[in-house]
Amino acid sequence: MSEHWRLAARYTFMVGVVAVLSGLGIWQHWGFPFAGAFGYGVVIGLASFVSTALSVSLLTGKSVAWRAVGGASFVLRYGFVAVALGVPAYLGAWPILAMLSGFAGVYLLENVVILPAALGAMSRSAKGGGRHAEGKRREGAESSDGWERTEKRVIV
Protein backbone atom coordinates (compact mmCIF):
# COMPACT_ATOMS: atom_id res chain seq x y z
CA MET A 1 0.00 0.00 0.00
CA SER A 2 1.47 3.36 -0.99
CA GLU A 3 2.05 6.17 1.47
CA HIS A 4 -0.85 8.35 0.33
CA TRP A 5 -3.30 5.42 0.68
CA ARG A 6 -1.99 4.67 4.19
CA LEU A 7 -2.40 8.33 5.08
CA ALA A 8 -5.94 8.34 3.65
CA ALA A 9 -6.88 5.20 5.59
CA ARG A 10 -5.55 6.56 8.90
CA TYR A 11 -7.26 9.89 8.37
CA THR A 12 -10.58 8.30 7.40
CA PHE A 13 -10.52 6.14 10.52
CA MET A 14 -9.62 9.09 12.74
CA VAL A 15 -12.33 11.33 11.28
CA GLY A 16 -14.82 8.48 11.55
CA VAL A 17 -14.16 8.16 15.28
CA VAL A 18 -14.45 11.93 15.82
CA ALA A 19 -17.62 12.05 13.68
CA VAL A 20 -19.30 9.24 15.60
CA LEU A 21 -18.56 10.93 18.92
CA SER A 22 -19.71 14.29 17.59
CA GLY A 23 -22.81 12.72 16.04
CA LEU A 24 -23.75 11.14 19.35
CA GLY A 25 -23.49 14.52 21.04
CA ILE A 26 -25.58 16.15 18.31
CA TRP A 27 -28.16 13.37 18.55
CA GLN A 28 -28.40 13.78 22.30
CA HIS A 29 -28.79 17.56 22.11
CA TRP A 30 -30.78 18.18 18.88
CA GLY A 31 -32.13 14.78 17.86
CA PHE A 32 -31.76 12.32 15.02
CA PRO A 33 -32.48 14.59 12.00
CA PHE A 34 -29.56 16.85 12.91
CA ALA A 35 -27.25 13.92 13.69
CA GLY A 36 -28.22 12.22 10.42
CA ALA A 37 -27.57 15.37 8.41
CA PHE A 38 -24.21 15.81 10.16
CA GLY A 39 -23.29 12.19 9.39
CA TYR A 40 -24.30 12.61 5.76
CA GLY A 41 -22.04 15.67 5.45
CA VAL A 42 -19.15 13.73 6.99
CA VAL A 43 -19.65 10.80 4.61
CA ILE A 44 -19.68 13.13 1.58
CA GLY A 45 -16.53 14.86 2.87
CA LEU A 46 -14.75 11.54 3.39
CA ALA A 47 -15.81 10.28 -0.04
CA SER A 48 -14.36 13.44 -1.54
CA PHE A 49 -11.16 13.00 0.45
CA VAL A 50 -10.70 9.35 -0.53
CA SER A 51 -11.30 10.29 -4.16
CA THR A 52 -8.28 12.59 -3.80
CA ALA A 53 -6.12 9.57 -2.94
CA LEU A 54 -7.54 7.79 -5.97
CA SER A 55 -6.74 10.80 -8.16
CA VAL A 56 -3.17 10.88 -6.85
CA SER A 57 -2.79 7.18 -7.64
CA LEU A 58 -4.04 7.74 -11.16
CA LEU A 59 -1.90 10.84 -11.71
CA THR A 60 1.28 9.07 -10.63
CA GLY A 61 0.65 6.12 -12.96
CA LYS A 62 2.73 5.44 -16.01
CA SER A 63 -0.08 5.42 -18.55
CA VAL A 64 -1.10 8.72 -20.13
CA ALA A 65 -4.70 7.52 -20.26
CA TRP A 66 -4.79 6.89 -16.48
CA ARG A 67 -3.23 10.30 -15.87
CA ALA A 68 -5.98 11.90 -17.94
CA VAL A 69 -8.60 10.01 -15.91
CA GLY A 70 -6.88 11.20 -12.73
CA GLY A 71 -6.97 14.82 -13.89
CA ALA A 72 -10.65 14.53 -14.81
CA SER A 73 -11.42 12.97 -11.44
CA PHE A 74 -10.44 16.21 -9.68
CA VAL A 75 -13.12 18.06 -11.64
CA LEU A 76 -15.66 15.27 -11.16
CA ARG A 77 -15.06 15.31 -7.40
CA TYR A 78 -16.25 18.90 -7.13
CA GLY A 79 -19.29 18.12 -9.25
CA PHE A 80 -20.08 15.18 -6.99
CA VAL A 81 -19.84 17.34 -3.87
CA ALA A 82 -21.98 20.08 -5.39
CA VAL A 83 -24.73 17.63 -6.32
CA ALA A 84 -24.49 15.54 -3.15
CA LEU A 85 -24.78 18.59 -0.90
CA GLY A 86 -26.82 20.85 -3.16
CA VAL A 87 -29.75 18.56 -3.94
CA PRO A 88 -30.67 17.78 -0.31
CA ALA A 89 -30.20 21.46 0.56
CA TYR A 90 -32.44 22.55 -2.32
CA LEU A 91 -35.10 19.99 -1.44
CA GLY A 92 -34.94 20.85 2.26
CA ALA A 93 -34.46 17.17 3.05
CA TRP A 94 -32.78 17.84 6.41
CA PRO A 95 -31.03 20.55 8.38
CA ILE A 96 -28.59 22.25 6.02
CA LEU A 97 -26.32 23.74 8.68
CA ALA A 98 -25.71 20.34 10.29
CA MET A 99 -24.96 18.77 6.91
CA LEU A 100 -22.54 21.54 5.94
CA SER A 101 -20.93 21.42 9.39
CA GLY A 102 -20.12 17.74 8.92
CA PHE A 103 -18.68 18.36 5.47
CA ALA A 104 -16.68 21.41 6.58
CA GLY A 105 -15.44 19.54 9.65
CA VAL A 106 -13.83 16.92 7.43
CA TYR A 107 -11.94 19.60 5.51
CA LEU A 108 -10.98 21.45 8.69
CA LEU A 109 -9.54 18.28 10.18
CA GLU A 110 -7.82 17.55 6.87
CA ASN A 111 -5.95 20.83 7.06
CA VAL A 112 -5.12 20.45 10.74
CA VAL A 113 -4.13 16.76 10.71
CA ILE A 114 -3.20 15.68 7.20
CA LEU A 115 -1.27 18.68 5.96
CA PRO A 116 1.43 18.52 8.69
CA ALA A 117 1.68 14.73 8.30
CA ALA A 118 2.00 14.97 4.52
CA LEU A 119 4.62 17.71 4.74
CA GLY A 120 6.57 15.63 7.27
CA ALA A 121 6.43 12.58 5.00
CA MET A 122 7.64 14.63 2.04
CA SER A 123 10.58 16.06 3.98
CA ARG A 124 11.54 12.59 5.27
CA SER A 125 11.48 11.12 1.76
CA ALA A 126 13.58 13.99 0.42
CA LYS A 127 16.24 13.44 3.09
CA GLY A 128 16.24 9.65 2.96
CA GLY A 129 17.33 9.03 -0.60
CA GLY A 130 15.50 7.13 -3.26
CA ARG A 131 13.62 9.04 -5.92
CA HIS A 132 13.10 12.77 -5.71
CA ALA A 133 10.80 15.09 -7.62
CA GLU A 134 13.73 16.94 -9.15
CA GLY A 135 15.97 14.07 -10.17
CA LYS A 136 17.44 10.68 -9.39
CA ARG A 137 19.71 9.74 -6.53
CA ARG A 138 23.25 9.23 -7.73
CA GLU A 139 26.11 7.70 -5.83
CA GLY A 140 29.25 9.84 -5.76
CA ALA A 141 27.58 12.88 -7.30
CA GLU A 142 29.60 16.03 -7.76
CA SER A 143 26.93 18.32 -6.29
CA SER A 144 27.02 19.02 -2.58
CA ASP A 145 23.55 17.56 -1.92
CA GLY A 146 24.03 14.39 -4.00
CA TRP A 147 21.16 14.98 -6.43
CA GLU A 148 21.59 14.89 -10.15
CA ARG A 149 19.44 17.67 -11.54
CA THR A 150 17.19 16.99 -14.47
CA GLU A 151 15.51 19.59 -16.60
CA LYS A 152 11.81 19.34 -17.32
CA ARG A 153 10.27 21.28 -20.18
CA VAL A 154 6.63 21.78 -20.91
CA ILE A 155 5.70 22.59 -24.47
CA VAL A 156 2.38 24.36 -24.84
Structural features, described:
This protein has 156 residues and is mainly alpha-helical. Strand 1 and strand 2 form a beta hairpin. The protein starts with a helix and ends in a 7-residue tail after the last strand.
Provide the succession of SSEs: HHHHEEE
Strand content: 5-15%
Helix content: over 70%
Termini Cα gap: 35 Å
Give the rounded overall mean pLDDT: 81
Number of separate strands: 3
Using the CA coordinates, give the radius of gyration.
20 Å
Domain tally: 1
Name the poorly predicted regions: 130-138
- Strands of the widest sheet, in order across it, are 1-2-3
Bulk shape: flat
Largest sheet: 3 strands, antiparallel
Protein topology:
Elements: H1 3-30, H2 32-59, H3 64-91, H4 96-127, E1 131-132, E2 135-137, E3 147-149
Antiparallel strand pairs: 1-2, 2-3
Helix pairs in contact: 1-2, 1-4, 2-3, 2-4
Q: Which properties best describe this structure?
A:
156 residues, mainly alpha, three-stranded antiparallel sheet, 74% helix
What's the quick description here?
The chain has 156 residues and is mainly alpha-helical.
